[in-house]
């Protein structure tokens, strides 16, 4: 009997100017489900609790494509929430973060 395993899903949050990684178990590959670089929540990646007026800061396909080209179909991927690496600054002078939803499947 064959067992179809459901993909493992995960969420990752990386604050601007920080590094993190995502990985899948041996024999499985990363699938990017969604990418968002910007700011939509006031308290995420805001250790000093500063008032942030622009909470409608969302990236375009530029950031999504940068993450896809770096991570899609790999077993491990280094993530950097950095304007230069992601290819855009969706809201200048606003602290941002990178949010990912991923899955791993054989």
TrEMBL record:
Q: Which Pfam families match?
A: SUEL_Lectin
Q: Which residues form the SUEL-type lectin domain?
A: 14-105
- Give start-end of the signal peptide: none
- GO MF term set: carbohydrate binding
Alphabetized InterPro entries for the sequence = Lectin_gal-bd_dom (IPR000922), Lectin_gal-bd_sf (IPR043159)
Read off the PANTHER family from this record.
PROTEIN EVA-1
Protein known as: SUEL-type lectin domain-containing protein
